[in-house]
Write a structure and sequence with these properties.
This protein has one domain. Helices cover 20% and strands 37% of the residues. It is built from 3 helices and 5 strands, in the order βααβαβββ. Strands 1-2-3-4-5 form a 5-stranded antiparallel beta sheet. Strand 4 and strand 5 form a beta hairpin.
Length: 123
């Protein structure tokens, strides 16, 4: 059901092609978080979002229905960061989980329910 994805971009061969471009999509997602998350809205330097980390990445099964749509890969990814809560006036950890799907036009991202941050297994 779940298979771990390499967190480094150093793999080669067909598996590397399967996930090609995913790291760039995760970086784009990070930029979206910085632009929209309330924990990232602080104006003081010590109130900015920082220390982003991909907590886990896990491949999901590509179904026959997915294949019919041209989807070749599905990956659930969780990301964590430190931000600043303006209401509580203190630092606070943030996290999000998304599912990325690679199709004919590239990767797409959709929100995903929280997962185990070590394995990316559904809760």
């Amino acid at each position: 059901m779940l298979a771990a994805c390499s967190q480094s971009g150093s793999s080669s061969g067909p598996a590397a092609d399967k996930f090609a471009g995913l790291d760039n999509e995760i970086l784009s997602w990070r930029k979206q978080i910085i632009a929209a998350d309330p924990l990232c809205k602080g104006t003081a330097e010590d109130q900015k979002c920082q220390t982003f980390e991909v907590a886990c990445k896990a491949e999901r099964t590509v179904t026959a229905e997915d294949q019919a749509k041209g989807i070749t890969a599905r990956v659930v990814t969780a990301i964590t960061w430190n931000g600043f809560d303006p209401k509580l006036k203190q630092a606070q950890a943030g996290s999000r989980t998304s599912e990325f799907a690679k199709g004919p036009s590239g990767w797409t991202r959709a929100d995903h329910a929280p997962v185990n941050m070590s394995s990316c297994a559904d809760l």
